[in-house]
Amino acid sequence: MRYSAIVLAAGSGKRMQSDVKKQYMEILGRPLIYYALHAFQESRVEEIVLVVSPGDEDYVRNDIVERYGISKVSAIIPGGKERYDSVYEGLKAVHGEYVLIHDGARAFLHNDIIERCLTDVVEHRASVVGMPSKDTIKIVDGDGMVVDTPNRALVWNVQTPQCFETELIRQAHAALRENPDATITDDAMVIERLTDVPVHLIEGDYENVKVTTPDDLRTAESILRSRGF
Description:
seven-stranded mixed beta sheet, 34% helix, alpha/beta, Spore Coat Polysaccharide Biosynthesis Protein SpsA, Chain A, 7 helices, globular, 229 residues
């Protein structure tokens, strides 16, 4: 079996309040996107398709992929307007039977998570990394009034990678493009809404968070130092 990874790095990172795009900001001397790429480079994944903002392809190829020896990158392609557009472009470029779709801003991916994905997706066809919620969750209406409190034992915070049989997620994304749905916010929802295949949750890591704000950069440095970077 062959495994591919799509790493998404086409966002603008507006909440980072920086002129440098979030994915290229340096942490411990390396761009943020390096850490996710390094994790896949050291894993059993055979190819990495990197999706970047249009116009960034040469910079990423020369200053990140080649500079740091990320030899598994098979394609660097421009993303689309929305996240699901970028995923669709990435799916057209992968060759593996299974694909792991990962947010490049989640710099704390490690091989244990990847291995759980590779094993689980073969059994379930659609698997998503996440962790049980530590907080009580409230469902509110349009006026901010609480209408429900779900059982916390059944609530998970979803992370990436999100892992799929390639042809399954490719067909689901093709169907989504025919009938766009702005309420779909991740690839698991594409499977949930457009197929009858159930999505299985895999335990990730509470440190597997997305770097989004300036405060996250300090946390990122601490976590990465603890891992020997």
